[in-house]
């Protein structure tokens, strides 16, 4: 799953890999619910499940095709899908005692929601039905677990890479993308264009993904040993200083004026597609968007530039996931589990993630031929094997932490607070939640 709202002043994405392939014959034949019942499930007959998911548009259509596939094979458990990207409504429905029977979420929300009782633990079902958790990429699965409890299962993994317009780079005399952060800064200056004091093209939006570059600088957001949040870690500071230096090069007024004229993300007017950005940092789904909205774009995909003083941190990145879970308080948890288990089987996982251009989370899905026609899949799959990919710490206060960090990051870029003041505010706000 991917967030559909892109803040041009703060791009916090997220990114990881995996899976397609083979499972047992029952799984590949559609995971009929009746056969599951005979193996120990207690799903009632002829139930209807409500399924809330966060995807919209063509992505929602891809999921609805899977729902139709399930419904045809399982007349006693019918699923009704609803595109619902307002996740606060999920929480309101759960706490109000009227939850959907199954729902999607982002991995960073699993631990906060699970620990607070909004998600039903799945471990008994996983053990009973022999779901092989070793088949999941560890970094992806870890986002769905807390203190040994599995609250969700990841359907897709997301990681960011550098996209560049080959024609624009060639016009500026570059025959390839920047490899180091120093080169990245040079490229941004050379590729940006101002006319009469107004920006008409940016080498790269300066409010870049602070999480990805934090890991490129060897930074960390949380010290597990001391139970201390570390927004003031030197690596975090270096990432923000990188973005701040580029931001100040153009100024808030000029950047705001420029961003007000940018087109919608999922359209031919996407600023990278239309040449407003010479480079962009984005996720594995972007090539599928390019194929749909800008098929003639001459572009390349490259690793995130690395800090030349820390070459051992090449190919750093931030991993995020999209997951399915069963809300607490559902009326037919056995039926919900049967559908959830079927969704995350390698065949369905490959069908869905290939349609979206996402990375699967099960190793057994890697070789599925459905990925052969997914643009950019090989580049992202290779990148996903990097040992320098990390995830934001899975903690009960992750949501509050990321929200406050985002607020202060934007304030720092705009000069409303100093770097030290902003990060101290994050620490003062979040550390009490740890304690």
From TrEMBL:
Keyword annotations from UniProtKB, A to Z: Signal
N-terminal signal peptide: 1-19
InterPro entries: Bact_solute-bd_prot1, SBP
Presence of keyword Lipid metabolism: no
One Pfam family linked to the record: SBP_bac_1
Domain of life: Bacteria
Transmembrane domains' residue ranges: none
SUPFAM superfamilies the UniProt entry points to: Periplasmic binding protein-like II
PANTHER family: ARABINOSE-BINDING PROTEIN-RELATED, DIACETYLCHITOBIOSE BINDING PROTEIN DASA
Name assigned to this protein: ABC transporter substrate-binding protein
Organism: Marinicrinis lubricantis
Species lineage: Bacteria, Bacillati, Bacillota, Bacilli, Bacillales
């Amino acid at each position: 799953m991917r967030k559909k709202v892109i803040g041009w002043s703060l791009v916090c994405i997220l990114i990881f890999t995996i899976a397609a392939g083979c499972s047992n014959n029952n799984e590949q034949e559609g995971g009929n619910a009746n056969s599951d019942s005979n193996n120990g499930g207690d799903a009632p007959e002829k139930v209807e499940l409500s399924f809330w998911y966060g995807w919209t548009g063509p992505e929602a259509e891809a999921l609805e095709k899977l729902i139709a596939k399930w419904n045809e094979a399982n007349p006693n458990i019918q699923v009704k899908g609803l595109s619902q990207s307002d996740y606060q409504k999920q929480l309101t429905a759960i706490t109000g005692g009227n939850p959907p029977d199954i729902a999607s979420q982002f991995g960073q929300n699993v631990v906060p929601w699970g620990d607070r009782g909004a998600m039903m633990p799945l471990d008994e079902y996983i053990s009973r039905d022999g779901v092989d958790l070793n088949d999941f990429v560890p970094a992806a699965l870890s986002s769905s677990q807390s203190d040994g409890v599995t609250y969700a299962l990841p359907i897709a993994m997301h990681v960011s890479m550098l996209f560049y317009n080959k024609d624009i780079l060639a016009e500026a005399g570059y025959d390839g993308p920047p490899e180091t952060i120093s080169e990245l800064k040079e490229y941004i200056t050379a590729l940006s264009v101002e006319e009469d004091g107004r920006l008409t093209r940016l080498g790269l939006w300066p409010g870049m993904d602070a999480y990805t570059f934090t890991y490129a600088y060897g930074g960390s957001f949380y010290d597990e040993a001391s139970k201390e949040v570390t927004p003031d870690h030197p690596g975090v500071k270096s990432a923000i200083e990188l973005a701040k230096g580029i931001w100040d090069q153009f100024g808030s007024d000029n950047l705001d004026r420029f961003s007000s004229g940018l087109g919608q993300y999922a359209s031919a007017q996407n600023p990278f597609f239309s040449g407003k950005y010479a480079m962009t940092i984005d996720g594995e789904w972007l090539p599928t968007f390019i194929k749909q909205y800008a098929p003639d774009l001459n572009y390349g995909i490259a690793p995130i530039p690395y800090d030349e003083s820390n070459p051992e941190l090449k190919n750093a990145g931030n991993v995020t996931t999209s997951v399915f879970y069963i809300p607490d308080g559902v009326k037919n948890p056995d039926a919900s589990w049967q559908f959830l288990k079927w969704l995350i089987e390698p065949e369905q996982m490959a069908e869905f993630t290939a349609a979206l251009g996402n990375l699967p989370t099960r190793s057994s899905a890697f070789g599925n031929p459905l990925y052969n026609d997914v643009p950019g899949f090989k580049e992202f799959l290779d990148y996903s094997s990097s040992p320098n990919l990390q995830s934001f710490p899975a903690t009960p206060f992750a949501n509050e932490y990321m929200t406050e960090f985002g607020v202060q990051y934007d304030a720092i870029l705009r000069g409303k607070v100093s770097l030290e003041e902003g990060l101290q505010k994050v620490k003062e706000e979040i550390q009490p939640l740890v304690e």
